[in-house]
Amino acid sequence: MTKFKYDDTFLARWLNDDLTDQELKDFENNEDYKTLSKIALKSAEFEIPAFDKSDTKDRVKKAAYYSKSKVRPLYYKIAIAASLILIFTLGGINYIQNKTTTLTTNYGESKVFTLPDGSYAELNGNSSLVFKNKKWRNNKRFLSLKGECYFKVKRGSKFTVQSDQGIINVLGTQFNVKALGNFYMVECYEGKVLIENAKNKITLTRGNSVQYKNGKLHKATFTNTIPNWKNDVYIYDETPLNVVFNDLQNMYEINELITTKVNLNQKFTGKLVVNDLKKALNIVCKPMNLEYKLLKNTIIISQL
């Protein structure tokens, strides 16, 4: 990574897709790029109030001035991040309003979406996709994912899926991504998938998968042609309990799952089929020395 000089005006141009190809390339090689991308994506989800365009420019300039004069000498990255968030929350640049699309699902439901380029995205329960419409019009296919999604990507320009755990780049392929807390799994069903995070850069081909569990990398192979969850089957191999419990809520549309003195980092290995909630709970809880109670649409799980 290289050092790259940028100011608030440059960041505003970047957020508005007004950089030249060379400027963007140079910026992407900057050591702060990934951090700023995450800030931009999260800030894009803020609800933006109505604003007066006539005084917004002065407000942003003042915010930037104070950030530079008081903060930058000691905490440069924090100052830049603050400037980015100020730009978003002030609502002062017209590229923010009405240009972000958020696709979501609730517990227990999955939905199929057609993306602006014709690509296919099927969200599993309690998941979300966020993208900026203008980027797609400019052939910059960039999404932010939380939860789980199966993609069938139409061939074209680079297609990027970002989560808190890593970045995936493809041109045209089929793959599944599960991003929950510190757990991150990618399965490639067709074509190639390039996965990057702070520590690794991996290319997956058809029938290969990778999991990041608390920062550790685990590779595997599979033979199924679509994700198991699409057939109401969930298979786990040394998977943290918090991920398993999240899936249980999705399987059976459970409003609330409460744990008491349970180590959610414990690893579970097994197979669950969506047909019997009590059976599923017994499969998970008994080998982990846990007990459960069902109260209407709430599950309480405790350590014995």
The CATH architecture classification of the largest domain is: Sandwich
The ordered H/E elements are HHHHHEEEEHEEEEEEEEEEHEEHEE
Shape: elongated
Low-confidence stretches: 47-51, 63-74
Helix content: 25-40%
Average of pLDDT: 81
The count of helical stretches stands at 8
| Span of the ends, CA to CA | 50 Å
The CATH first-level class of the largest domain comes to Mainly Beta
Largest sheet geometry:
13 strands, mixed
Number of spatially distinct domains: 3
CATH topology of the largest domain: Jelly Rolls
Protein name: FecR family protein
Domain Protein FecR C-terminal: 234-301
InterPro entries: FecR, FecR_C, Ferrdict_sens_TM
GO molecular function: sigma factor antagonist activity
Protein traits:
FecR_C; three-stranded mixed beta sheet; Phage tail protein beta-alpha-beta fold; alpha+beta; single chain; 13-stranded mixed beta sheet; Jelly Rolls; 304 residues
Provide a descriptive summary of the structure in words.
The structure is a single chain. The chain has helices at 8-15, 21-28, 33-44, 53-71, 76-90, 133-137, 241-252, 277-285, and strands at residues 100-104, 111-114, 120-123, 128-132, 141-152, 159-162, 167-170, 174-180, 183-190, 192-196, 201-205, 208-213, 216-221, 233-240, 256-260, 267-273, 290-295, 298-303. α3 (33-44) runs parallel beside α5. It is elongated, with a radius of gyration of 22 Å. The chain is α+β, with helices and mostly antiparallel strands and 304 residues long. It is built from eight helices and 18 strands. It folds into three domains: 8-90, no CATH class; 100-221, Jelly Rolls (Sandwich); 232-303, Phage tail protein beta-alpha-beta fold, CATH 3.55.50.30. It comes from Aquimarina algicola. The chain crosses the membrane at residues 74-96. Pfam families: FecR, FecR_C.
